[in-house]
Amino acid sequence: MTTYSTRTLFIAFGLLLSSLGYCQENTTGYFEPDISLNYKITPNYSHNFKIAQRAYIFKDDFKYQVRQLDLSHFSTIKIGFEQSIALGVQYRFRDSFDAPGENELRITEQYKFSHAYDNITVGSRLRAEQRISPSQTVHRFRYRLSIDAPLKGEELDIGEPYVSASTESLLSVAKGNKPVYDQRITSHIGWLLNRETKLEVGGEYRAEHYTHETQHIFFLLTSLIFSL
């Protein structure tokens, strides 16, 4: 079942990217793998470190070209039952890979709430971001609604798969520019390899600047997550 699901995900992503890529000029496809480490300091305080690479796999034609490298860190504090706040910092290396793209420092403030309904967890996440680059500072506001659940049984056991899906709305504002509205839809299939390790593969669709001239962005995603 899990092998079939993974194969279906890759085939569906490829077919969708191919069909849209040839009929729309404003379509881009990326491959984005990442590795992250979750480290718990106390029961209510934890760190997350992540490194991610983004590469073009479609832009005018099919190719593979690295676009950027991201390094990020989040500190998270639980403030109540199923609630947390977090502060994050990220640095994006882009001008070395995709000039004239600029490097970027990003600071993020986050509030998260989640609740379990039987074997399904529903989460809400609010973020405010300051994206600082040499040419401008962009303030971005984000809301994400997500669900995740095991694909076998009531609880997730070692070696078993799970599924997650989310939708996220974004508003970006900057001095001298009109507001930019984006929408994202994401889905993952994951496996709990052991108590400390998860592997996820998935896809994401982004409709960027959809009130002006929509840019269609597709991602093939892979994540390796370690928890200590």
Q: Any key phrases for this structure?
A:
11 strands, 228 residues, disordered N terminus, 1 helix, mainly beta, eleven-stranded mixed beta barrel
Concise account of the structure shown:
The protein contains 1 helix and 11 strands. By secondary structure, the protein is mainly β.
Task: Provide structural commentary.
The protein is mainly β. It has one helix at 2-23, and strands at 27-42, 45-59, 61-80, 83-93, 104-117, 120-132, 137-150, 161-173, 180-194, 197-208, 215-227. It has one helix and eleven strands, in the order αβββββββββββ. The chain has an eleven-stranded mixed barrel. A hairpin with a 1-residue loop joins strand 2 and strand 3. It is globular, with a radius of gyration of 18 Å.
- CA distance, first residue to last residue: 29 Å
Strand content: over 45%
Coarse shape: globular
Structural class: mainly beta
Instruction: Determine the number of helices (DSSP H or I, runs of at least 4 residues).
Output: 1
Compressed to H and E, one letter per element, the order equals HEEEEEEEEEEE
Instruction: State Rg.
Output: 18 Å
Helix % is: under 10%
Major beta sheet, strand line-up? 1-2-3-4-5-6-7-8-9-10-11
* Integer average pLDDT: 90
Contiguous uncertain segments of 5+ residues: 1-6, 19-23
How many beta strands in the DSSP annotation?
11
Largest sheet, strands/sense/barrel: 11 strands, mixed, barrel
